[in-house]
Amino acid sequence: MLTLNIAIIIPFIAAALIPLVYKKIPKIHIGWFAIIVPLVLFVYLAQYIPSIANGQVIENTVHWIPAYGINFTAYLDGLSLILALLITGVGSLVILYSIFYLSSKESLGHFYMYLTLFMGAMLGVVLSDNMMVLYVFWELTSISSFLLIAFWYQRKRSRDGARKSLLITIFGGFAMLVGFIMIYAMTGTWSVREVVALAGGFTDHELFIPAMILTLLGAFTKSAQFPFHIWLPDAMEAPTPVSAYLHSATMVKAGIYLVARFTPIFGGEMSWFWLVTGVGVFTLFWGSFNAVRQTDLKALLAYSTISQLGMIMSMFGMGSAALHFGYSAESSFYAQATFAALFHLVNHSTFKGALFMVVGIVDHEVGTRDIRRLGGLITLMPITFTFAAIGSFSMAGLPPFNGFLSKEMFFTAILRISEAGFFSLETWGVLIPIIAWSANVFTFIYCMIIVFQTFLGPYQEEKLEHPANEPPIGMLVAPGILSLLVVGIFFFPNVLGDYILRPAMASIFPTLAGEDLGVSISAWHGWDSPELWMTVGVVVIGALLYIYRKYWTVVYRLFPEKWSFNELYSFILDWMEERSTAITNNYMTGYLRDYLVYIYLFFIVAIGGTILYTGAYSFDISGNAPITVFEATIAIVMMIAAISILFAKSRLTAILINSILGFGVAAFFVLFRAPDLALTQLIVETVTTVLFLVAYYFLPEWQKEDVPRKSRNVNLLIAVLVGVVFTVVALAVQNGKLFATISSYFENSYELAGGKNIVNAILGDFRAFDTMLEVVVLLIAGIGVYTFIKLKAKKEDENYEDQ
Amino acid sequence: MKINNVILRTVAKIVVFIILTLATYLFLAGHNSPGGGFIGGLVLASALVLLFIVYDIETVQKAIPVDFKKVAAFGAFLSVGTGFGALIFDVPFLSQSFAYFNLPFFGETELTTVTIFEAGVALVVVGIVVTIILSISEDV
């Protein structure tokens, strides 16, 4: 069945069609067309919920490059299903919201094209089984999110934020690619499932730890873990629907997904446990600590996302300890953390999506997101306030909202892990609950800031751009549905748990699958449970700190701005820009002669050096055919022509004589019975001669130049050396054979490709990939020439850059 | 700059058609004898270049109102598209196929998917060669 692969492709097709539709039907908001895509996909994926819950998997392969084991395998199991449902479900809501959020003056065609492109890339990431294909989609999410963040590209801050996210996530992506290649080197397969099946068999391999670290780098950069978190706050320059979608529900979760997906491969190892848990817990603390100091609501939410992602990450780290034991009472004990992580993953998407939309509504209605200017909106925007309160209280971990349940489970997990006696937890393990608990206090504080600073207190109309009003009803639908989910999941958590989370758990612990891991969600653990008292502690201390915050927020001044990672990033970027400008200015002299000298020198050193080093200059002409009169004649004519170019009096003469050389080569091809090459050479020679003539028409008169004797000698030396190296290469080529010849394969061109012309069968059938890429290169080169000549920068465009 | 080149114009009118016929022949014959998409495209482009030299650019563009950048882009799309087309039949990317058919008038003829791929190559070559020559010669 092909449908799963097509489901990934559909958003890409939509992305191609949307700009066309946008031009044709300007009256209807294009978002109404875009929303069809995620809705259909959501319904399509949702039909698999019962069969996936029964332990089935859906799988389909399209062969791509089978020779290298790279196939487009779509694979749907519990873990992919959670993410895929979030991508399409939250995607539909975000598009619905954006229809009312973005005015039709924006270039909506682009917006929805980027958004559907991103959706397809994200589905590709979570549904691909092949690591190479996964990597391709992974980088596509970076690129499409770059386009989305820079949607308002007229603003410098948008462009900077987009560049920052691209640089950081692509850096991680490259690291991940190397990690994947290492995994391939260890296991010999690109398929994640096959690697999982081999898991445990290669833990002693010397590449195991490097592969783990490199793969984690990809995951950490994508899901904004410390210290790579700095791109997420800057990415908030994107339109709010984008923030709600990419930066809370989907793209940042790709890193989480990757960690979950690779847990069966690397999990159960001490270094994996400490890296994932440690980075996660610290990110949790750092994000929540910094969120409190923010004054922009969106920046605050960005830091809160960082901290929540850290929390999910740390739970996956703790859960991976279960793999250490195989199936036993202990493993089911620790596996609870993974369950909690998956649960919080879903919960976070619901409440954070709603909160971003609420902030968007506030921004849209009053024109500011600065909490120092907001306040008293509760009476004017009661519905918005309700959604904000539901989202925030859920994030703070209060009942009756779903965040309470997953936060309780998080506390359970950290308490259990701190009691464990493995992985040298005895020494450092005691820090985990302390850091995590204090991070939750800060989480509580910033959640209260969102609700109370925005909606209570004095209403300062003079500081707002527009008077506050409820938004149009359409804008409230999407956050309303998410808020309903927040409450609904609290009252019926085990529906989600049994149908969605449990199958996902089975795909993270394939070795434990089939065993009852004994997980269920309950809101009430009894008065004697320590988790309850930890929550009570968070609320009491958090409330006190919130009320008296003006007395202690001075601690933030202890961290000077210039010691932050942001400053380090800008410093490195500025430094590289400065140095590369200096270096480039040094060698880009503007003289064509200099550039030719670089090229020739490189050629002489690289090719000549290689020949000298490998000793490949031995030639043997004994096997050559005798030279006939025709060949000798053509060669002599060409030599005369080559020498007479030096004495040509005008450019025209030089060009025409030069073309004699080309036609001479064509004549050689005819003699050696290579009609294809001869034809090509003849026409290429004709066309390039015309091109030469066209280009030379614009040059000034050819004058005798006064070249200093010294540089003339250098030129002579380079010319002679290039000639010598070329001759040596041409003569040595007959002898050197680095690889076994494959020409016998092409002799079957008639049986295999139905072509009597072997040259064409090679170009079109056997090595069509080369030809295809050559065609693309030709296209790119042509576009390059065109833009160089036609699209010169206009003066008035320059100011545009600095807005 | 008006040059009186009556002979060139008269000859070109006939020669262009010969070149275009040759281009079509080369393109279609490519699978079994010398020719193919690249050469066919180049020959076709050289016919256009001849027209540009003999007549001026405006005249030719009026006669052939085609945006050659789009031709090139469409060609690349076609070539890459045949690669993805193979995936629909569950064979590796860029797999080509061929079969023999008994067509009226032509008799038994070989039809191949490579022809579509080569058509893309030819269109890219035509589009790019003409675009480059036009953009250089228009830049006065």
Question: How do the strands and helices of this protein lay out in sequence?
Answer:
The complex is a heterodimer of chains A (803) and B (140).
Chain A: H1 3-24, H2 31-34, H3 36-46, H4 49-53, E1 58-65, E2 70-76, H5 78-101, H6 108-127, H7 131-149, H8 156-187, H9 192-198, H10 208-222, H11 231-234, H12 240-249, H13 251-266, H14 270-291, H15 297-319, H16 329-366, H17 382-396, H18 402-419, H19 425-428, H20 431-455, H21 473-491, H22 493-508, H23 530-547, H24 549-552, H25 565-587, H26 592-614, H27 629-645, H28 651-671, H29 675-696, H30 709-732, H31 743-746, H32 749-753, H33 758-766, H34 768-790
Antiparallel strand pairs in A: 1-2
Helix pairs in contact in A: 1-6, 3-5, 5-6, 5-12, 5-16, 5-21, 5-22, 6-7, 7-8, 8-10, 9-13, 10-13, 12-16, 13-15, 14-15, 14-20, 15-16, 15-18, 15-20, 16-17, 16-18, 16-21, 16-22, 17-20, 17-21, 18-20, 18-21, 18-23, 20-23, 21-22, 26-30, 27-28, 28-29, 33-34
Chain B: H1 6-29, H2 37-54, H3 57-63, H4 68-88, E1 98-103, E2 107-112, H5 114-138
Antiparallel strand pairs in B: 1-2
Distance between the termini of chain B: 13 Å
Low-confidence stretches of chain A: none
Oligomer: heterodimer
Major beta sheet, strand line-up of chain B: 1-2
Strand content of chain A: under 5%
What is the percent of helical residues of chain B?
55-70%
Through-space gap between termini of chain A: 51 Å
Strand content of chain B: 5-15%
Q: Strand arrangement, largest sheet of chain A?
A: 1-2
Order of helices and strands of chain B: HHHHEEH
Number of helices of chain A: 34
- Give the rounded overall mean pLDDT of chain A: 84
Fraction of helical residues of chain A = 55-70%
Cα-atom radius of gyration of chain B: 18 Å
